[in-house]
Amino acid sequence: MYTQALNIRPDSGERQLEDADLTVRFQARIDAEERIEPNDWMPAAYRRTLTRQISQHAHSEIVGMLPEGNWLTRAPSLRRKAALLAKVQDECGHGLYLYAAAETLGSSREELVDQLLSGKAKYSSIFNYPTLTWADIGAIGWLVDGAAIMNQIPLCRCSYGPYARAMIRVCKEESFHQRQGYEIMLTLSRGTPEQKDMAQDALNRWWWPCLMMFGPPDAASLHSDTSTLWKIKRFSNDELRQKFVDATVPQARILGLSLPDPELRLDEETGHWRYGEIDWNEFKQVIAGNGPCNRERLAARRKAHDEGEWVREAALAYAQKQRDKALAA
Amino acid sequence: MPVASISVSDTPLLRYTLRRADDALILGHRLSEWCGHAPMLEEDMALANMGLDLIGQARSLYAYAARVEAAGRDEDAYAYLRDVRGYGNLLLVEQPNGDFAQTMLRQFLYSAFIDPWWRAMMDSTDATLAAIAAKAEKESAYHLRHASEWVVRLGDGTQESHRRAQAALDALWPFTGEMFEVDPSERELIAEGVAIEPESLRAGWCETVASVLAQATLAVPQNDWMQKGGRNGHHTEHLGHLLSELQYLQRSFPGAVW
């Protein structure tokens, strides 16, 4: 049910001077790798950072249902149809789970969803790209979920307990999705010439946006420093991006597909694959709302929300009637 | 050589199995259309869940149909390579989602029939159908409960939800009679105990419907004119559009493996 706020704290405002002892003790717990739990004391900025990160993550799961949902009715076999529906359902489950984790920090799901619908909150830039062919479903599973896993595995050790525990479950499902996506790509790349072209075209279109999923280069990142200190973030954007590239290059080889980067080369000294310049201007534009599908994605979420309003009202009205009856009895 | 459409042998058991598979697939497909667009995330989950159950039932039935026909086909051949006239699903399940009330009333009217149907099919003399029924019955029991709860909430919720629920019920009602239709090819199967006499489920269906509608403060429609034809491929115009989407890739790339 679409609940009202749980555990809303009275707005104390940000205390200018947080208790110095508490802050020191808090950092000591973090440094000792202890988990912070909802009722523990935490600095207001820690709470705010996590609320933002977890809710953005939840929004990404929910908006992320749309590009893949675009192929639910056109999946090419019953097995693929069932797998895709189960996958999109998993994403929805992740969203719910993450909203619940964010609620433990004192913001209601309703508030957080309103931030998404008003355009105030961000979600992952990748979901503002269109799914044009069936191969995009393979590419999303392989690359987008692959990139998400790179990001999320370290989050299983995040200092905030509810988020860390949510990530353990989410990562298990994402690994499964990634294998499914890769298997779609494998089938296509071993299929007819048209299917192989479809797979290559999808890879060409999704590769660079996937590299952008890790966020701006370290030199330009706004949030990393405190997040690292608080052990919310364990690796930098560039480190995670490099891990992803290193893992993906051999996978593309097995598929017999080429990555759309003429500058890609193995650095013999470090063993890392060096990649070409990312178009950060494109990233900025997509984040600013100018990606190919930003408007459609938000419009679809708003439409679902607006058209569902009478249903949610009916459920509340019915529940109220039942309570009134119980009281009268 | 890949073919554009298949023509299926016309034997009673095959026809019977395919018709029920088509019901499950088409309704499952309709439910999948909601995914990402439902009134609340919990319903995105629930609708997808029911859709998955139905697609799973369809796959079991199509796989059995393939064994019965023994023409070297698989589940996808039946789903993707038959056109509108070859589909034998009920008109009820192909009706568009409409608003949430229409979707839930459709689910309710169907589940109130199919849940006892599956339960009765557990005693089918056909061991495969009985085994499929044993699994499907658990799923349909949940679908019926979930849909019934929503019918009551919507009917007895706000004025607007009541109005929408009643309108959905009135629009769908003429498609409910077809569930109890039997054609001559099915008579033999009923005599052999493979299939069940749907008439035997009518009293129970009427009772479930009357009881849930009463709780929902909705009026049982008085219109007793019933549409039929789906079982013999005489569909509403909606099915062709649904199939053109569902079958698009198989039609565009004949013979490709996905």
UniProtKB/TrEMBL annotation, chain A:
Please give one Gene Ontology molecular function term for this protein.
phenylacetyl-CoA 1,2-epoxidase activity
Any GO BP: phenylacetate catabolic process
Q: Which Gene3D superfamilies match?
A: 1.20.1260.10
The record lists the lineage as:
Bacteria, Pseudomonadati, Pseudomonadota, Alphaproteobacteria, Hyphomicrobiales
Q: Which Pfam families match?
A: PaaA_PaaC
Cross-referenced NCBIfam families: PA_CoA_Oxy1
Q: What is this protein called?
A: Ring-1,2-phenylacetyl-CoA epoxidase subunit PaaA
SUPFAM superfamilies assigned? Ferritin-like (SSF47240)
Give the source's domain of life in one word: Bacteria
Give Gene Ontology CC terms.
Answer: cytosol
From TrEMBL, chain B:
Among the GO biological process terms of this entry, one is: phenylacetate catabolic process
- Listed GO cellular component terms? cytosol
* Entries under InterPro entries matching the protein: Aromatic_CoA_ox/epox (IPR052703), Ferritin-like (IPR012347), Ferritin-like_SF (IPR009078), PaaA_PaaC (IPR007814), PaaC (IPR011882)
Q: Which Pfam families match?
A: PaaA_PaaC (PF05138)
Q: What NCBIfam families does this protein's entry cite?
A: PA_CoA_Oxy3 (TIGR02158)
- What is the protein name stated in its UniProt record? Ring-1,2-phenylacetyl-CoA epoxidase subunit PaaC
